[in-house]
Design a protein that fits this description.
about 0% strand
Length: about 130
């Protein structure tokens, strides 16, 4: 067996100049700083991705439910709905009044013959001399 002459044990000693020792410590601190910096950036990016996924899910829910009215309505929509309901009630009242008026006015009158008046009849109504066209 070949003995290399290097024996490492509990009482082994190493001689290193101070310049090299400072360089090694600086290199280790530099590597540790880069590692923690990258780890922090990765964590921040993962958090951003989670927030974006939540935002997309919320937007998708809004996009589907808003047109259906499942998420409520705008205040302007509520006012508009009230106005439409009021107008519909008023229109129903006017329609009923018109129907009652038409039923009462036709009770003793025969239906019109839907003929147009002649020129002489129109002239008589307007008190103009009749014209021959």
């Amino acid at each position: 067996m070949v003995d290399s002459g290097i024996k490492v044990g509990e009482s082994s000693t190493i001689t290193v100049d101070i310049k090299s020792l400072i360089g090694i410590v600086a290199m280790i601190l530099s590597i540790a700083g880069v590692y923690f910096s990258l780890t922090g950036q990765i964590s921040a990016l993962q958090l951003d991705v989670i927030r974006m996924q939540d935002s997309v899910a919320t937007n998708e829910e809004f996009r589907i439910k808003w047109p259906r009215g499942e998420l409520g309505a705008l205040p302007d929509d509520a006012v508009q709905d009230l106005n439409i309901e009021y107008i519909q009630k008023e229109l129903a009242k006017v329609q009923e009044e018109l129907d009652n008026h038409l039923e009462g006015s036709h009770a003793g009158i025969s239906a019109p013959d839907n003929s147009w008046p002649t020129d002489s009849e129109l002239a008589h109504l307007l008190e103009l001399p009749p014209h021959n066209f």
